Amino acid sequence: MPLHHHINKDGFRLRGIELSRIDGFSDVVFGFALTLIVVSLEVPHTYNELHAVLLGFVPFAICFIFLILVWWDHYTFFRRFNLHDRTTIFLNCGLLFTVLFYVYPLKFLFNLIAAQATGQSRNVFTQVGQPRELMMVYGAGFAAIYFIYAAMYWNAWRQRKHAHLNPLETTLTLSYMWDHFGVGCVGLLCCLAARLLPPDQAGNAGWFFFIIGIWKTVHGTVSGKLTNAARARTAPEDLTAPPAHL
Fold first, then answer.
1. What is the distance between the alpha carbons of residues 216 and 19, in angstroms, rounded to a whole number?
2. How far apart are CA 14 and CA 182, in angstroms?
3. Over its length of 246 residues, how does the chain's per-residue pLDDT go in tens digits?
4. According to DSSP H, which parts of the chain are helical?
5. Measured between alpha carbons, how far is 135 from 206 in angstroms, rounded to an integer?
6. Cα(33)–Cα(64) distance, rounded to whole angstroms?
7. Annotated domain spans of the chain
8. Which among 1, 49, 71, 161 is placed 20 to 30 Å from 208, CA to CA?
9. Structure letter (DSSP) for residue 36
10. Which three-class secondary structure state does DSSP give residue 235?
11. 221 CB-side CA count, 13 A
12. CA angle, corner 31, sides to 179 and 89, nearest 5?
């Protein structure tokens, strides 16, 4: 399958080829989360209503892309490891809970940003501290999602012998864990900045998310060297042998 070839292009052998009950249940939850961000459930009756719906497509697209990225991380994790232990199930349930909780703050924030960018903004806050609270909720939800992913990869690394991970896969697992952990820390930085900035400037905490690009660059450079070294010390037969399915 081309999608599977894309996932294992880094050399990670795939263990979860078949759809599991965890996959099925998780896809239902992700699908439900996507329905919560739809622009409108009704067909517009006037052009003004249609115009309002069209303006809502930009924040809808941003929210849709973000949820798809979260789903992709979930999909690749279970293709790589196919773990069904209690810790993985617990962390997966925590992830799905966080995604569902995160949908409305995500949609509210990007609807607000789009309205401000188009000059359609209105006063949606009734207290001076509410923008700060919004950014802290958004940052905390973002951080929680990626910290859970980091914990899932840590749990997979902890079971590396049981999963028969070769040296390359072990190194890649740690690389993915630190990658997600670093992204989660950016969410915490957003929370901290929103807490320290004046209430009317709390929205500027969102600029901290651009640090993700810096983190990805630095982490990619370091992990690339470690991965190449791990690939060199991995026996050729361990790179090509079918993985043990758990």
1. 30
2. 25
3. 566 666 677 778 888 877 788 889 999 999 999 988 886 566 677 877 777 777 778 888 899 999 999 999 999 999 999 899 999 999 999 999 999 999 999 988 888 888 777 777 667 888 888 989 999 999 999 999 999 999 999 999 999 998 889 999 999 999 999 999 999 999 999 999 999 999 888 889 999 999 999 999 999 999 999 999 999 988 887 677 667 655
4. 2-7, 21-35, 47-55, 57-81, 86-117, 130-158, 167-196, 211-232, 236-240
5. 7
6. 9
7. 2-240
8. 71
9. T
10. coil
11. 5
12. 55
Determine contact, residues 34/82, Cβ cutoff 8 Å.
no
Q: What is the pLDDT of residues 66-88, one digit of tens each?
A: 999 999 999 999 999 989 999 99
Which own/partner pairs from 20-27 qualify as long-range (CB within 8 Å, at least 24 positions apart)? 20/78, 20/82, 20/84, 22/78, 22/84, 22/88, 22/89, 22/92, 23/75, 23/78, 26/74, 26/92, 26/96, 27/71
